[in-house]
Amino acid sequence: MTLTQEDMELFKELRMTEFGRVIQEIIDDPARDHDSFEGKIKQALYAQRDARDSRRIEKLMKEAGLNTTAAALERFDTTTDRGITADRINRLASCDWIVHGQDLLLIGATGTGKSYLAQALGVHACRSQFPTRYYRLADLADDFDALAVNPAARKEFLASLVKPALLVLDDFLATTVSDHALFQVFNLLVARENSSTVLASQHQPEYWYSVFTDSAVADAVLSRLSNNGLLLRLRGEDMRTRTDLNVDHPYRNTTIPRHLRRAER
């Protein structure tokens, strides 16, 4: 018995190409002749599910806009006095904080790994099938400034940043940005009240008061983050000298176990 081209076209039409491929592989393997029917069907179904998940993860990675997809929580250095334990990394990897819309502040000097950790969290969120967006604040500010004369487009852009389950803002307030852009960032943080935002900055939150010209805005931002956020202070040696952190790793396209994923909608 073999599947015909017509059969394979039907699988393709039903978007079950991988299911058909695995079934044909089982048919062609004499060693599988005595396997149970249920076992064969399960194998094909799981293969189809994994193929679907891999495609979705690849799509989420592209949409996220991450600078690198090589960053991984599994490779973050917790053996030195980095300020973050392996247990904390495991808890972040569970993604419970994303499910509950908790914010995360990563504060540390240049080279302590805050940007790496921020992007690793973004990569892991995509692998766990959470829609994610990544921006350096300076780039986001430029985009907001470019849309200053087009309120409708700016509103649409803002709405697109509110939707993802996770938004990562890297190099937060590392450079000077316009008051207009800062106000849009404030609106964004307020609009994401029920979704998770990661802010990675070399400046302590107290410094933000000196950046926001409107103290009421600063109070609102700090209150929003302090009431709903988790603050992690990073320290230790300069991670930029770690060349092994900038290459692809075997976990890059790994599908996250289903019990660690967000419930499918």
Automatic annotation (TrEMBL):
Pfam families found in the cross-reference section: IstB_IS21 (PF01695)
UniProt record, GO biological process: DNA replication
GO molecular function: ATP binding
Residues of the IstB-like ATP-binding domain: 12-244
InterPro entries attached to this UniProt entry: DNAC/IstB-like, IstB_ATP-bd, P-loop_NTPase
The entry's keywords: ATP-binding, Nucleotide-binding
Matching PANTHER family: ATP-BINDING PROTEIN RV3427C IN INSERTION SEQUENCE-RELATED, CHROMOSOMAL REPLICATION INITIATOR PROTEIN DNAA
Protein name, UniProt field: ATP-binding protein
